[in-house]
Amino acid sequence: MWAITAGRxxxxxxxxxxxxxxxxxxxxxxxxxxxEIKRNIASKKYTSPTPIQDRAIPTILAGEDIIGVANTGTxxxxxxxxxxxxxxxxxxxxxxxxxxxxRELALQIYDELAQFxxxxxxxxxxxxxxxxxxxxxxDLSQNPSFVIGTPGRIKDLxxxxxxxxxxxxxxxxxxxxxxxxxxxxxxxxxxxSLLPVNRQSLFFSATVGPKVKEIIETFIKNPxxxxxxxxxxxxxxNQDVVKVDRSQNKVDKLHDLxxxxxxxxxxxxxxxxxxxxxxxxxxxxxxxxxxxxHGNKSQSQRQKMLGMFRRSQIQILLATDLASRGLDIExxxxxxxxxxxxxxxxxxHRIGRTGRANxxxxxLTFVG
Length: 368
Fold this sequence. Notes:
This protein is of the alpha/beta class and about 375 residues long. The chain has two domains: about 20-225, Rossmann fold (3-Layer(aba) Sandwich), CATH 3.40.50.300; about 235-365, Rossmann fold (3-Layer(aba) Sandwich). The protein has 14 helices and 13 strands. The chain has a seven-stranded parallel β-sheet with strand order 3-4-2-5-6-1-7, sandwiched between helices. Strand 10 (about 290-295), helix 13 and strand 11 (about 315-320) form a beta-alpha-beta unit. The chain is globular and about 65 Å long. It starts with a helix and ends with a strand. Residues about 1-20 have low confidence and may be disordered.
């Protein structure tokens, strides 16, 4: 019952003062990047930089190390990709390593890289679990300028001498707090020990606890800190609780919600792989178009479900907390915490999947 005992107000939207919209100092055309990349930015219909893009892009272009403190969904992927693509385009000897906590986030970065670098003949390799190791070894043998991966697979490839971190003069650690939560802190320290001393280091995290600070001290020197983290009360999300009495069936309560108007694209979080799978089976048997992603699913199965959810071929996607980072899906109408998250930070990460791009969203948490 952390949500109550922690003394935080869940339904906080009524008290929030509306902030003035951010006015960026730059336009994308102002940045010192080549015209080819500016064309790719324009083709994605990006107009004004987000706060993290506005502040990080010129800093990275200047060769500085940065600590970016930002929530998921603030545009930080483009904030580091755009200047790094420019760096590689100007100097083909440059190599960049990007490490992320989840396969979904790695794939999202890989896809964005392909869009921003379209027509620039820049090779990249995606190194994640759940997909062919042989194919990844082949991609690495072609000397890609960008390697994007998760800690487990990167460690495997280093062990098999297919990946030499001493070649990478540019390194991005993304969502470091989540990597620490999952238990990758020793792996990250190991990777840092293999990197060249002279490098550009970019570090992104939504929170900076003691273990994250420990990594910062070994990873990055004289950084520029850029903090655009939103307050915990997220303005565009209407947060509320759904009380379930002991006499009520929890699945029935969920059913009654899902058939209401407006529940168009719903993301439901549960604690365990078994639990979300069981709930998915139950909802499907009741006629709902539902899918699930969790650690027991192969990468191709997870990508298929995410694709169906993005295209609204299914109405409901169920997930465990591991998947709550890196999920970037437009127009999620509701996030439902069917099981309470383990911490307040997990709660914030979950509900941040809705209310994006200045749209309204709803987060409902089952308690009882």
